[in-house]
Each structure stands twice: as C-alpha cells, then as structure tokens.
Amino acid sequence: MEITTLFDPYPTPLPVSAVRIFIVMIIGGGAVSTALFLVAKFFRHDPPLKRFLMKFVQWCVASTCIAVLLLFFRQQRAYLLSTAGIAYGAVLGCAAWLVRIAVKGIRRLANEQHAWREQEERKKYL
Q1: Where do transmembrane segments lie in this chain (predicted)?
Q2: For the chain, what are the domain ranges?
C-alpha cells in the first residue's frame, strides 16, 4: 500500500460486499451496546460495576456512530473525509480508547466496589 492511497482525496466507493460487512458491523455494534446496557441495568444495585459497564456502552455507541459516518463519507466520496488514513486513524483511536477503558476501569473497579460496600455497611448501623 502506498502513502498516496491512504490520503487520496477522492477514493473510489467501497464495493457492495464491503458495504454489507459494514452494515453487519453496525448492527452488531448496536446489538452489543443494547446487551451491555441491559446487563448494566441488571446490576443497578452495584453502582461501580454499572458505571464500568456503561463506559463500554458509550464506547460501543460512539464507535458505531463513527463507523456510520465514515461509511457515509466514503460512499458519498466526500473530499478528504473519505480517505483511508482517516479511517485507520479512527480505528486506532477507538482501539486505544477501548484499552484505556478496560485497563483503567479494572484498576478502579475493585477500589470503588470496596469503598461502596464499606459505605453500605455503615448505612446499616446509622
């Protein structure tokens, strides 16, 4: 792959098979975010875990919206917005965001749950 193809301002539209794959990914992202939202609602009595899961829901919704916008720009051949370099940058950004949520969230989840349980124990005696 050449550097000129990454930043071609007028790339060709994606083939129909690639569009179908993107549509399946978008539907899958919506399904995953809905499932995570329902799981988070199930854990409504554990606020730290619910907050942790809602961060994943926000990531799913945001990355799905980014994928929809990038697919739209590519199909419409929007000048500079449909370049492959922007798509690769968006994928790297979403992946870095997901890793940050997972690493930071797992570190904080144990501490927040411990503090929340202690607070609940104190409320019993007050």
Answers
A1: 20-40, 52-73, 79-99
A2: 3-125
Helix (H) or strand (E) holding 97: helix 84-125
Task: Answer whether 87's CB lies under 8 Å from 70's CB.
Answer: yes
In angstroms, the CA 8 to CA 121 distance is 61
Render pLDDT for 75-87 as a digit per residue (tens, 0 to 9). Answer: 888 888 888 888 8
Burial grade of 66 (CB within 10 A; 0-12, 13-18, 19 or more): middle
Task: Answer whether 75's CB lies under 8 Å from 13's CB.
Answer: yes
Question: How far is the C-alpha of 68 from the C-alpha of 52, rounded, in Å?
Answer: 25
Half-sphere exposure for 59 (CA within 13 Å, toward CB): 20
First-last CA distance in the chain: 67
Angle (nearest 5°) at CA 89 between 82 and 20: 55
How far is the C-alpha of 125 from the C-alpha of 117, rounded, in Å?
Answer: 13
